[in-house]
Amino acid sequence: MAIDQSLRDRLTNSVAAGFPGQVSFTQDLVRMPSTRGNEHTVQDYMARALRSRGMDVDVFAMDDEAIARHPGGSRISSTHSRAPIVVGIHRPRKETGRSLILQGHVDVVPEGPADMWATPPYDPVIRDGWMHGRGAGDMKAGVASAVFALDALRRIGLQPAATVYMQSVVEEESTGNGALMTHLRGYRADAALIAEPGNEGLTRANLGVLWFQLEVRGIPVHVANMGTGANAIDAAYRVVGALRKLEEELNAETASHPLFGSHLHPINLNIGKIEGGDWASSVPAWCRIDCRIACLPETSAAEAARRIEACVTDFARSDSFLANNPPRVEWNGFFAEGYHLEPGSEAERTLTEAHRSVIGQPLETRLVTAYLDARVYALYDRIPVLNYGCTAENYHGFDERVNLASVQRTTAVIAQFIADWCGVEPV
Amino acid sequence: MAIDQSLRDRLTNSVAAGFPGQVSFTQDLVRMPSTRGNEHTVQDYMARALRSRGMDVDVFAMDDEAIARHPGGSRISSTHSRAPIVVGIHRPRKETGRSLILQGHVDVVPEGPADMWATPPYDPVIRDGWMHGRGAGDMKAGVASAVFALDALRRIGLQPAATVYMQSVVEEESTGNGALMTHLRGYRADAALIAEPGNEGLTRANLGVLWFQLEVRGIPVHVANMGTGANAIDAAYRVVGALRKLEEELNAETASHPLFGSHLHPINLNIGKIEGGDWASSVPAWCRIDCRIACLPETSAAEAARRIEACVTDFARSDSFLANNPPRVEWNGFFAEGYHLEPGSEAERTLTEAHRSVIGQPLETRLVTAYLDARVYALYDRIPVLNYGCTAENYHGFDERVNLASVQRTTAVIAQFIADWCGVEPV
């Protein structure tokens, strides 16, 4: 049911007509500092935005028990978000097309020291065609793209001729439990599209990701008697050394992987956060390190976790201090497997055509070494999931920014994809 | 003016008679969690205790400018204490003896994770003859000793026949500025005694101590692109490696030192506290490490500091990331030189006799590789300073405790020392 060029052009023009409003909507999202646990106001904003567009809106909480029972559930602690999930529901007059999930996350990672930003992190300043701000790229511009792609249809008197679920989720940055919760709530469709920033490319596969916290406790003493005490910070860093060796082993093993074998160093271990000790003149009694590591799509999270635990245990046995004070490994976030988008799906073909029509280039595919919510739809809904979006830079860094021309282009691609995939009917 | 055995015996008995009250007083001190900045209530308690004993009491604030101008002034920041210094002043009816400063500090180091204590850190539980609690040993038992040594004289109708300044100070655990402030306020005497826990030994010399904070900033990115970012935590730990090499160099240089040459490893570098990064999946942008290092008595703090700064600068130049992102070294506490108690003083001889009389053993001397307030009196007042006190364990650690039999013995020694050094007169 390929759409004709005239509809394509009308949609592209309609996206352009709505773009000032889209930029302003994106700025509203960026102004809300929706770090983990602080997504309440932005989710209320999304619920109002979807409701004002005539959608039914379902606002629901995480079901911790259901998440804990599911193999794709990541570990939950009090540090995780209690903000709700918001789903806007579009029903056509008559269901003739293929249904679709449009998904985006509104949580953002911490902004870090404010003085390392050129402009304040939650001030969506536009300079030279880029909008700046924490979350501007990852992925508030993408969330706005999906909403305004639907608006572009409506502006020319059309709407999808199939059910569309617009899912605004949280917890993408530390567990992926928000996306999983939409699955557990029962939402299903024929395909899913997630407008994560991706340099206008389609994600072919991504890695699994695990989070863990390593804790070492030591026997503290006055530093004058340092020889008789054990420094928990130094001991923890010795464990990091052992984990770095495991990281190299794991990367060596990826060489034969059909997709990630071409990647120089797909498995990254990140020492993301460290805290230890209380006083410069006391030998530190404790140290906690927050780590993140990836695993290949075919590796289960449990298998990857066993490997890490074995590495820590084996190293500890060989260390005179750690043998008596074994480090603790706690899984405190992502416990998620990677996925692979099988080539050849109708959904991919439909996106490829829309992309070629708007961008004038073939759609390139990419491998992603980070966590993506797409895994939920690929692994558990078992549907084609298109992770596709605009160009952004420095996400998780300072001066994060998103390219507005790219946002407009990819919004037009998404509008054409929706029209083609779902079909259209008059409003 | 050696005192006779009968007075010695009466004083020892008088200390025993007052000991239940002394234990209770010490427990009161331990119950107050007087970590840095939180010494206000314990200083009020001390002021009331000294006033109730008929002393004039001088309560005064730190003079930051005067401290900054003095070569023995340590670096002050907003993290340091604003609690006052308390000095109780005893004047005799007629000044016939030698004047004395009795000094003690009431600040304590942080207690660390409460669950690593057998009993709560500020609950002065007595088990098997030891009183437990943060600060019980370092040095609230010592502060109480000095007060109750004077009480022991009064109980038998005597008082020192010379001026005695009882100084209760703060900031011994991070700058030594409290002790320096008593010097700047103008207090002087013929000798000083500080009842720091010392296993019933006299300190012959101690090391200088410096505190600094090392800060590294990195370029953060999403961990998926880890190769293009620099991990500030890893980079900071590379600097620690360079500082560890300097530590070994400095220890090698101590071999020829007349006093510390016999010590296996006098110069300890402690990595006491670390903090860095905000998120497991973001390459960390910052890391701060609080360090403490010692230097030999003859080395000035400025000289030791230059050596450390040069080490950090030289290493940074050789590191591809740090060369462009030079680490910052900030002196944020102790900037203090060591001291040496010259053998042969009258004060030492007087203490030796009191010690032999009570303990029945020769007075042993010891080298201390930690900071001691004694340096102020030795270096700037240029008087004999006796750092002498009871047996305590695990100070700066968990389950810190002080041996009560040892407290009673050393209190008797101090009482005899006061009577002998200052002379006595009827109350």
Please write out the topology:
Two copies of one chain form a homodimer.
Chain A: H1 5-31, H2 40-51, E1 56-60, H3 64-69, E2 85-90, E3 100-105, E4 126-127, E5 130-132, H4 136-155, E6 158-160, E7 164-169, H5 177-185, E8 191-194, E9 202-206, E10 208-217, H6 232-253, E11 269-276, E12 286-295, H7 301-317, H8 320-324, E13 328-336, E14 339-340, H9 346-359, E15 365-368, H10 374-381, E16 385-387, E17 392-393, E18 401-403, H11 404-422, E19 424-426
Parallel strand pairs in A: 3-7, 3-8, 8-16, 9-15
Antiparallel strand pairs in A: 1-2, 2-7, 4-5, 5-18, 6-19, 9-14, 10-12, 10-13, 11-12, 17-18
Helix pairs in contact in A: 1-4, 1-11, 4-11, 6-7, 9-11
Structural description of this entry:
The structure is a homodimer of 427-residue chains. The model of chain A has no long low-confidence stretch (mean pLDDT 95). Chain A is built from eleven helices and 19 strands. The first copy, chain A, folds into two domains: 5-206 and 339-426, Aminopeptidase, CATH 3.40.630; 208-336, Alpha-Beta Plaits (2-Layer Sandwich), CATH 3.30.70. Chain A is an alpha+beta fold and 427 residues long. A six-stranded mixed β-sheet of chain A has the order 1-2-7-3-8-16, with helices on both faces. A four-stranded antiparallel β-sheet of chain A has the order 4-5-18-17. In chain A, strands 11-12-10-13 form a four-stranded antiparallel β-sheet. β11 of chain A pairs antiparallel with β11 (269-276) of chain B.
